[in-house]
Design brief:
This protein is mainly α and about 90 residues long. It has a single domain, classed as Orthogonal Bundle (Arc Repressor Mutant, subunit A), CATH 1.10.10.10. Helix content is about 45%, strand content about 10%. It has four helices and four strands; from the N terminus they run H-E-H-H-E-H-E-E. The protein has a two-stranded parallel sheet. Strands 3-4 form a two-stranded antiparallel sheet. It is globular, with a radius of gyration of 12 Å. The structure holds a DNA duplex (13 and 13 nucleotides).
Length: about 90
DNA sequence: CGTATGACGTGCA
DNA sequence: GTGCACGCCATAC
């Protein structure tokens, strides 16, 4: 399954600095397919590698969204990294 | 190869 | 500000 899109997505997500967050749309845009934000979430969902900080990827609305290990874990990790969350939403 | 699904996004009521 | 419907792309079956 070494699709180019998936590889790009992983690479981009892995480059997200600690304490920073990126939206699915932004990742898809960096991957070269600004309309593939859906596919980005799908790929991350089916691959969920512990090496990939996919918990730093959220929705454009600032919502936490989902996580393979549970959205609660995702929120906890973000908070731990210094991300300020307000009502389950990222304070940008 | 065609249909269905999903960690989404935007628009409109 | 909230909720619903449509659209969009890559995978899975």
């Amino acid at each position: 399954m070494t699709s180019l899109f998936q590889e790009k997505v992983f690479k981009i997500v892995a480059k997200i600095p600690k304490g920073e967050t990126m939206t699915y749309k932004r990742v898809a845009l960096f991957a070269g397919k600004p309309r593939a934000y859906r596919a980005v979430g799908n790929i991350l969902n089916k691959n969920a590698d512990p090496k990939i900080p996919c918990h730093r990827v959220m929705r454009s609305d600032g919502k936490i969204g989902g996580y393979n290990r549970g959205a609660e874990i995702k929120e906890s990790l973000l908070k731990k990294e210094g991300v300020v969350i307000r009502n389950r939403k990222i304070v940008h």
